[in-house]
Amino acid sequence: MDYQYPIDFTWKTEEIVQVISFFQGIEKAYEKGIYREELMALYKDFKRIVPSIAEEKKVCGEFEEVSGYSSYRAMQKAKKCADGELVKMKG
């Protein structure tokens, strides 16, 4: 990983950790797969910190720009999977 995660410096340390954990879950979905329920739990925590759709698009867009990984596409796939299924994105 040769990039920095998008961070809002008004977030508390634990909020930054949760946002980074969500993005690491997205990376995992692209790199080796992540179970649906794990990714959904990470997303739920992420949405507590980034509740507005506009801010989510901004932060996730910044992440996609630096990483090449689409949070939107990964979450769309996760929503279609059943619990216990692995969310595995194609490069």
UniProtKB/TrEMBL annotation:
SUPFAM superfamilies in the cross-refs: BH2638-like
Record-linked InterPro entries: BH2638-like_sf, UPF0223
A Pfam short name: UPF0223
Family to which the UniProt record says this protein belongs: Belongs to the UPF0223 family.
HAMAP family attached to this UniProt entry: UPF0223
Name of the protein described by the UniProt record: UPF0223 protein CYL18_11520
